[in-house]
Amino acid sequence: MPIKNILGEAIGVTQMINKRAGVFTTEDEMILGSFCSQGTDWPKYLFFVAAVAIEKSQLFKKTEDMRIYLQSILSSITSCVVTLSESMKLNTINRPWFADALGVDPSFMKENTADKWIGDQNSDLLKDIRKVYHTQEAVFVTDFEIKGKSSALIVNYQVMPLIGGHGVVLVLDDISSEKRAVMTLGRYMSPALAKQVMEEGSGQL
Question: What average pLDDT does range 34-46 have in this prediction?
Answer without folding.
Answer: 52
